[in-house]
Write a structure and sequence with these properties.
about 200 residues; mainly alpha; 2 strands; globular
Length: about 200
């Protein structure tokens, strides 16, 4: 215990930052290792759409019907993202080098997805923002001033990336009629998923 207190005294900024991250993202409830039931969480696109306010986007099956190939491509991206642990694993368990490798793979897959879509696809603008978020994370996490064990920045940068992804995944879900499943649903904006679990 004395060693821990001494470490906290030497690095107060680190512990303050960590406490802020835990509070902001609700990590404390996950660190106690109490796992949720194995029931898969699913948020239906129609329910997410009902929570959108102040945003004007086409709703699948209501105001527009996307070409089938486009929906298949976007759904394939969702399936890929569902298996990207860097998007939803509790911050306390993230390793920076693993996160960086995962973000590189996500950026590459986003580029491939954009290449497969028609030039005027409704989804491209959303995918480009997500890809830009990957570049931003990689640029910021490679900042020489933030290298070392006291490198707190990568958690803040990862939190920003997750926020951007959650918002745009919600928009794409509504646009293409795709339900958001599994742990990927954890990064949807809270106002889009409150009381919508099925």
């Amino acid at each position: 215990m004395n060693g821990g207190r001494a470490l906290a005294r030497r690095n107060p900024e680190f512990w303050q930052f960590l406490a802020q991250i835990f509070w902001q993202y609700g990590i404390c409830s996950k660190i106690n290792m109490k796992r949720k039931s194995n029931k898969t969480t699913r948020y239906k696109f129609s329910e997410i759409a009902s929570r959108l306010t102040g945003i004007s986007i086409p709703v699948f099956g209501v105001s527009w019907q996307p070409p089938k190939p486009e929906r298949v491509i976007v759904r394939s991206l969702f399936v890929f993202l569902e298996d990207r642990r860097s998007l939803y694993t509790p911050f306390a368990f993230e390793m920076e080098h693993q996160v960086t490798e995962s973000i590189l793979q996500i950026r590459e897959t986003l580029t491939q997805t954009i290449q497969q879509l028609p030039e005027k696809s409704e989804s491209i603008s959303y995918l480009k923002v997500m890809r830009a978020a990957c570049r931003e994370y990689l640029d910021n996490s490679n900042d020489p001033s933030e290298i070392g064990w006291r490198h707190n920045g990568f958690l803040a940068h990862l939190g920003r990336l997750r926020t951007i992804f959650g918002y745009h995944i919600a928009q794409l879900a509504v646009l293409y009629g795709i339900d958001v499943e599994g742990e990927l649903a954890n990064i949807l904006p809270p106002e889009y998923k409150e009381d919508l679990k099925s």
